[in-house]
Write a structure and sequence with these properties.
Length: about 750
């Protein structure tokens, strides 16, 4: 437990008082390892774990009453791997970057030595390739056999030691991974050749070039894979680097430069023209425009005035801004995005389960196939050496490493690309659902409209005044977070009406609110709600405005008409959704006339008005029952049940580290088009995953029979192995260049 408390960034307590923790893992070589660690962690009582091979991390939820981080780390160790609790974001990123660089350099040195030793062995094969006779496993030997053995042995046992170590770890843990296949295969070829050489059996073939070439090629594959993996997380690294390391704060009347960690919330921060903003802050003085493209993906600079918010990592253009810090360190929007995306990159897409399952049972099956190949070939061809080499090829071609990389690499690149364009995807499952989305349910207020309604009219009943209506309404609305409430409170303040306080305030979601003002029961809300409350209503006016009625002691005092403008970009976004085959349904709690006006203006054909929050959820459920993959965009004020019910929930225009945690996918930009971008990016990522899984399976499925029937040369098998990993990672990297289409 101690360790979890010491690392707050990676520990979140959820509702069931379970604790979530991330572990950094070491020693994995392929998807089979990941499956093994996951099994080991899940065997710990009260624990649910998901291991990501690509990020070398585990996301573990455990019951603190039954387990603790040390027990989890011990469970990983027993399975033959190493685990530790990571430090904070930036430190962790730097450590892992430095470590990966060092590992890559070492791997690259060993690779080139391996090439130098292997080339003289494979050189005689060149004519064979030239004549196209690549299936032949014999060729002309140029070098004396002892010389060949001298070249192949360091490749086998020095360069190849990583495979022995990996195989040992995995076997000791009771499983088998790709290292087992490589170590077993190449050792068999080496032992056979060494025996032939040392016993002087000159009429038999030797296969030193095969074992050395396989090791060299697989190391090449690992090297390219490591390079590409570093590239996949580049998006996140570039986001982290946006935040400057120092800030200028006003202390005792002077502006001083302080390290970022020293800035306190509430301090006055000065942002000079051309500087990157160091903290989240509210502008108190100055005018400028700020480049926020790194957070929102929107290239137009945003004007900033006193009262506006600036975000860490964005760049101030021409003016000098004095601000008050509202979020520093890990509490900035930028840090929140990085944390969330890192978590997402470590999460597992439902589509990956199949691949994991296959990888876990693959190795033992392959060993069985190799044994059958050996026995059958020996039996029918009568040549034990050839039979052995044929089963070696089976072992080599069957490595499931591309399978383990197929999904996570695409998820990492896709979520990273999203973060660069203001799309924050919470986890891989959200991405997968968004990629399959067929129906999008949208809330009206704040989603299609600006979300800032304004009072356009106050109509008092006979015997009452405008001020009286506003005063009573404002008294109740002080207690509400509803956008309508904010508008009414603002109007009352502008009109300088008397302020009352409210007692016994009760919000009625989707309808309005009740309370007591000066001991008298006051009710406010939609006209339908007031009718239900047996307030005597006059014939309602279908004005196309949102109407809020105010009643005191059961009698209508007046109505307030509000209007909320359609956002300029909404219509284009709806057109794009239709173009991409997504059904859009607007569901609102507002009255039918307003709903119709907004739906028409936005170009939405299907809408429902007067729907209560619980019924919004029921509508989403009904779509799901029809088999539609349903998304919901809402403000969360009273759409929470529907957002929770949807396959994937979207939030628009979140401006704080906390707000982006609320939905499955958050777009930072205040624009429905960003939701369309999120859906298209998810589709592109899902398409990559499908392509990758196909690639990965194809290599193994085509390769194994060819190998079993002796139609593949060991060197070709090694090259195919390396190529499979590399092609999968490279394909995922293509997503880096993704751009939203029209
Ligand atoms: P939407 O679907 O547009 O988000 P809501 O479900 O939030 O609408 O609210 C539906 C209707 O209920 C509003 O149009 C309004 O008439 C009434 N209402 C709900 N909450 C309040 C409130 N706090 N103050 C005034 N009216 C409210
Ligand atoms: Mg709402």
């Amino acid at each position: 437990m101690d360790t979890a408390v010491a690392a707050p960034q990676s520990t979140i307590a959820d509702a069931a008082s379970n604790v979530r923790i991330d572990l950094s893992l070491e020693g994995m070589t392929c998807a089979a390892c990941a499956a093994r660690i996951e099994k080991a962690l899940n065997r710990v009582p009260g624990t649910a774990a998901s291991v990501n091979f690509a990020t070398e991390s585990a996301s573990v939820t455990f019951d603190p009453a039954q387990s603790n981080p040390s027990a989890l780390i011990a469970a990983v160790a027993r399975a033959g791997y190493r685990a530790r609790v990571p430090r904070n974001e930036v430190a962790e990123q730097q450590v892992s970057e430095a470590k990966q660089n060092a590992q890559r350099r070492r791997l690259s040195v060993e690779f080139w030595i391996s090439v130098a030793l292997t080339l003289p062995l494979v050189a005689p094969m060149v004519p064979m390739f030239a004549t196209g006779n690549i299936f032949a496993s014999t060729h002309h030997e140029l070098l004396p056999r002892l010389m060949q053995m001298a070249l192949a042995t360091p490749v086998q046992f020095w360069v190849g030691r990583r495979f022995y170590v990996g195989a040992w770890h995995s076997l000791r843990g009771g499983g088998a991974n790709m290292d087992v296949l490589i170590a077993l295969g190449t050792t068999m070829a080496w032992v056979l050749s060494a025996a032939v050489t040392l016993l002087g059996l000159d009429h038999e073939h030797v296969y030193f070039e095969a074992s050395a070439a396989v090791i060299t090629l697989v190391v090449l594959g690992k090297l390219l894979e490591a390079r590409a993996k570093a590239g996949t997380s580049a998006a996140l690294q570039s986001l982290l680097k946006l935040q400057p390391r120092v800030a200028f704060v006003e202390r005792d009347g002077a502006v001083v430069e302080v390290p970022l960690e020293a800035v306190r919330i509430g301090e006055r921060v000065v942002v000079r023209a051309g500087d990157a903003v160091s903290v989240d802050a509210v502008v108190i003085e100055g005018e400028s425009s700020v480049d926020e493209s790194m957070l929102t993906g929107e290239s137009q600079p945003v004007a900033k005035h006193p009262g506006g918010t600036v975000y860490a990592g964005t760049v101030n253009n021409e003016g000098l801004l004095r601000c008050r810090a509202t979020g520093v360190g890990d509490a900035t929007l930028l840090a929140g995005i990085v944390r969330l995306v890192r978590e997402a990159q470590g999460s597992k897409a439902p589509i990956q389960r199949l691949a994991d399952h296959v990888a876990g049972i693959f190795v033992p099956i392959v060993v069985v196939i190799a044994v059958i190949t050996f026995v059958a070939t020996w039996w029918f061809a009568g040549d034990a050496a050839r039979a052995l080499i044929q089963s070696v090829v089976v072992l080599v071609i069957a490595c499931p490493c591309a399978l383990g990389l197929a999904t996570p690499t695409a998820i990492i690149v896709g979520t990273g690309r999203g973060a660069q364009r203001g799309v924050v995807i919470r986890n891989a499952a959200a991405l997968e659902h968004a990629g399959r989305l067929t129906t999008l349910v949208v809330d009206k207020t704040g989603t299609l409209t600006e979300g800032k309604p304004a009072v356009v009219d106050v109509i008092p009943e006979m015997g009452h005044t405008v001020d009286e209506v506003l005063a009573l309404a404002a008294a109740l609305e002080q207690g509400s977070t509803h956008p309508l409430a904010a508008a009414i409170v603002r109007k009352a303040r502008d009109a300088q009406v008397q302020t009352y306080s409210v007692t016994d305030y009760r919000a009625v979601p989707g309808k309005g609110a009740r309370g007591y003002v000066g001991g008298i029961a006051v009710t406010l809300g939609s006209l339908a709600f007031l009718s239900e409350e047996s307030v005597n209503m006059r014939g309602s006016i279908a004005s196309g405005h949102t109407e809020v009625g105010v009643a005191s002691a059961g009698h209508l005092v007046g109505t307030i008409a509000l209007t909320d403008r359609l956002r300029e970009t909404t219509r284009a976004a709806i057109d794009r959704l239709r173009l991409h085959g997504i059904d859009v349904v607007m569901i609102t709690g507002d009255n039918a006339a307003t709903a119709k006006a907004i739906a028409n203006a936005a170009g939405i054909a299907t809408y429902r008005a007067g729907v209560l929050p619980a019924d919004k959820a029921a509508a989403v459920r009904a779509f799901k029952v029809e088999g539609r993959v349903t998304g919901m965009v809402g403000d969360g004020v009273n759409d929470a049940p529907a957002l929770a019910e949807a396959d994937v929930s979207f939030a628009i225009g979140a401006g704080s580290a906390v707000a982006i945690e609320a939905a499955d996918i958050t777009v930072i930009r205040n624009d429905l088009n960003a939701v369309v971008d999120a859906i298209l990016l998810s589709r592109a990522t899902l398409a990559k995953i499908r392509q990758n899984l196909f690639f990965a399976f194809a290599y193994n499925v085509l390769g194994i029979p060819l190998a079993a029937f002796g139609m593949l040369n060991p060197v070709i098998a090694g090259a195919a192995m390396a190529a499979s990993s590399v092609s999968v990672v490279t394909n995922a990297l293509l997503l880096k260049r993704w751009r939203p289409s029209g």
